[in-house]
Amino acid sequence: MLIGVPAEIKNNEDRVAITPAGVLELVKLGHRVLIQSNAGFGSGFEDKEYISVGAEIVPTIEDVYARAEMVLKVKEPIAQEYDLVREGQLLFTYFHFASSEPLTKAMIKSKAVCLAYETVESADGSLPLLIPMSEVAGRMSIQEGAKYLEKPLKGKGILLGGVPGTPRGKVLVLGGGIVGTQAAKMAAGLGANVIIMDISLKRLRYLADIMPANVTTMMSNQHNIETAIKEADLIVGAVLIPGAKAPHLIKRDMLKKMRPGTVLVDVAVDQGGCIETCTPTTHEAPTFIIDDIVHYCVANMPGAVPYTSTLALTNATLPYVLELANKGWQKATEESLALKKGLNIVNGEIVHKGVAEAFA
């Protein structure tokens, strides 16, 4: 199979969809790999490293889309890529269709095969291609939130861990999945007092067992959320419904219950966000303020640490890339239920329930 890897052109996105090590595994099996020039530069991989393992370097993104049977990406195609996607071409990347009707319509129009990392699902219900970036984003949510709590950045002026003789910062994490778990661990490690909420009692029991003493588990419901936000210094939105829009757990009128300078980090923003007032931002302009509340809503948080993120992502995606390359997407999805669940749009038709429901 001829596999193409374009450079990511989304704002401040320096990740790349495959490492030289991954290219070598494909080439060993007889596949050909096209890498757009400098696609790996932001992640620390130079063209000469790809060439040394058998990749062909091509100068433009148009070359990649025009020739490749399967296009590997990190983030969804943006508007200037829509017309480059060809009928029958396989795109394997994060799509998050439910949060973007223009993208969904463009991929329907293209009649391409859109296989989304975020809905590939293992037999145990886990999302193996979402987990590594969720781990990165969860840890980064605390790193970024702690920074924006600084007074020059319009936060409360609070050090999350405090120092002897001062109170610790208070962190509220909404959602006890991968993102929420990693966020709670990081916040606890910094010394903050942490509340983590989830709707699953089974999950809360697990979290209570593994978390340190400065983490409190709590059932997620409107009353508990409205009570906790009054005292929280940093609130992390970490709710995910695979393939579908995230529910709004914090509404606009609830901002008035928070103290000025509270920081909101909505990790679910690429799925529509679980905080009503959050809209996607970029690494260049990551925050905005509504009602004296700082909102951090960067849709590609792991893009800020591309070396770590690229290694983590490609460790997870490569086995599936090899399966698709070796068998073709039709046979691969017939034989693998995990990959079949990754299909979102096929030849102009939405085939994923969550995406279909998002647009009625």
UniProtKB/TrEMBL annotation:
Coiled coil start-end: none
Record keywords: Magnesium, Metal-binding, NAD, Nucleotide-binding, Oxidoreductase
Catalytic activity field: L-alanine + NAD(+) + H2O = pyruvate + NH4(+) + NADH + H(+)
EC number, UniProt record: 1.4.1.1
Binding site for substrate: R15, K75
Catalytic residues, chain numbering: H96, D270
InterPro entries xrefs: Ala_DH, Ala_DH/PNT_CS2, AlaDH/PNT_CS1, AlaDH/PNT_N, AlaDH/PNT_NAD(H)-bd, NAD(P)-bd_dom_sf
Record-listed Mg(2+) binding positions: E323
Binding site for NAD(+): S134, D198, R203, S220, V239, L240, V267, A268, V269, D270, V298, A299, N300, M301
Gene Ontology BP annotations: L-alanine catabolic process
Family matches, as SUPFAM superfamilies: Formate/glycerate dehydrogenase catalytic domain-like, NAD(P)-binding Rossmann-fold domains
Cellular component terms (Gene Ontology): plasma membrane
The Alanine dehydrogenase/pyridine nucleotide transhydrogenase N-terminal domain, residue ranges: 4-137
Name of the protein in its database record: Alanine dehydrogenase
Organism field: Arcticibacterium luteifluviistationis
